[in-house]
UniProtKB/TrEMBL annotation:
This is D-cysteine desulfhydrase. PANTHER family: 1-AMINOCYCLOPROPANE-1-CARBOXYLATE DEAMINASE-RELATED. InterPro entries: ACCD_DCysDesulf (IPR027278), D-Cys_desShydrase (IPR005966), TrpB-like_PALP (IPR001926), TrpB-like_PALP_sf (IPR036052). It comes from Desulfobotulus mexicanus. One of its GO terms (molecular function) is D-cysteine desulfhydrase activity.
Length: 333
């Protein structure tokens, strides 16, 4: 895969670490060796996966002479926080459209990422009800900005178009270089599957390099079949963009929807246990919405014996810990 054919900003300082999670592996019975790729430690305020995608999105925006970015997300969106963060560094304005997926969940004085939007100086926040056409809403904001003489660029939710997903195909390449250097043979990679750029990027990257390492997505909102179709469609667009000759087989896209619970961003017992277990065994902070539910999936799959005895499994930690502070009651209850 050749990433030099695309405009790209350089936000990464180098590869994020791959670490063994010996304490957690032992706590889960010791049948599977768990490793973690620390994308929670990526640059950009408070870290997390969107920085890899934004390297490509901001480069495209600058190529198109934009001076302003418009993006969208949920009320505690890490993606909105990181877009605001890189907009600061690029001297661009940032405008947000937030979807109130859970009624009454937006609080202007809210903690977590909500507070960070403010601190990072976003120019405007517009809250729209659940189920709104977010692209249409962003276009509305964009049209208003154009009327004031600005040059806005729309970054889709989660930066999950083929441009943003390049960041995770590149992550797959980075991961493979590390695994080869470490002489570490992993049998599977577990990732959260949300707006799908992370999952699609890792799946396409691992496939394009003929690694034979399966990538398993843990859903955070949708049903299995719906999410798999979304990931598969984006994987197809990404493959074409990268010029990967062979189409990725449909059966290489696998999602689990058993860990979503009552819905997006709504706490589950498994998520609370996973967040507490990662903190108490590995000193790693997860988040309640994405990495906590993905880790709940990882833990359950290990306990159920989904991975054969002696397997090595790599968990992609996508970040999100600022959202913990918006959920204090959940963890203290
Ligand atoms: C956005 C996000 C994800 C999901 O990644 P997608 O590419 O949207 O599927 C996972 N974890 C965290 C912390 C995120 O912010």
């Amino acid at each position: 895969m050749n990433f030099t054919q695309f405009p790209r900003r350089k936000y990464l300082q180098g590869a994020t670490p791959i670490e063994p999670m010996e304490n957690l592996s032992k706590a889960l019975g010791g049948h599977v060796d768990l490793y973690v790729k620390r994308d929670d430690l990526l640059p950009g305020s408070a870290g997390g996966n969107k920085t890899r995608k934004l390297e490509f999105c901001f480069a495209d925006a600058l190529d198109k002479k934009a001076d302003t970015v418009v993006t969208c997300g949920a009320v505690q969106s890490n993606h909105c926080r990181l877009t605001a963060s890189w907009a600061v560094k690029e001297n661009m304005d940032c405008h947000l459209v937030l979807e109130e997926r859970v009624k009454g969940s937006y609080k202007p004085e809210g903690s977590g990422n909500n507070f960070l939007f403010e601190l990072l100086g976003v120019k405007s926040i517009r809250v729209v009800p659940a189920g709104s056409d977010m692209m249409a809403e962003m276009e509305k904001t964009s049209a208003e900005l154009k009327n004031t003489g600005k040059q806005p660029y729309i970054i889709p939710g989660g930066a999950s178009n083929a441009i943003g997903a390049l960041g995770y195909a590149s992550c797959a390449q980075e991961t493979m270089v590390q695994l080869n250097e470490m002489m570490l043979k992993v049998d599977g990679i577990v990732v959260p599957s949300g707006s799908a750029g992370t999952h699609a990027g890792m799946a396409v990257g691992m496939f394009a390099m003929n690694t034979n390492i399966p990538v398993f997505g843990i859903n955070v909102s949708r049903k299995k079949d719906v999410q798999e179709e979304i990931v598969y469609k984006l994987a197809g667009e990404l493959r074409a963009k990268l010029g990967v000759k062979t189409e990725i087989p449909r059966d290489q896209i696998t999602c689990f929807d058993e860990y979503v619970g009552p819905g997006y961003s709504l706490p589950t017992e498994d998520m609370i246990e996973a967040v507490k277990l990662f903190a108490s065994t590995e000193s790693i902070l997860l988040d309640p919405v994405y990495s906590g539910k993905a880790a709940a999936g990882l833990i359950d799959l290990v306990r159920k014996g989904f991975f054969p005895k002696g397997s090595r499994v790599l968990f992609l930690h996508t970040g999100g810990s600022p959202a913990l502070y918006a959920y204090l009651d959940t963890f203290r209850a």
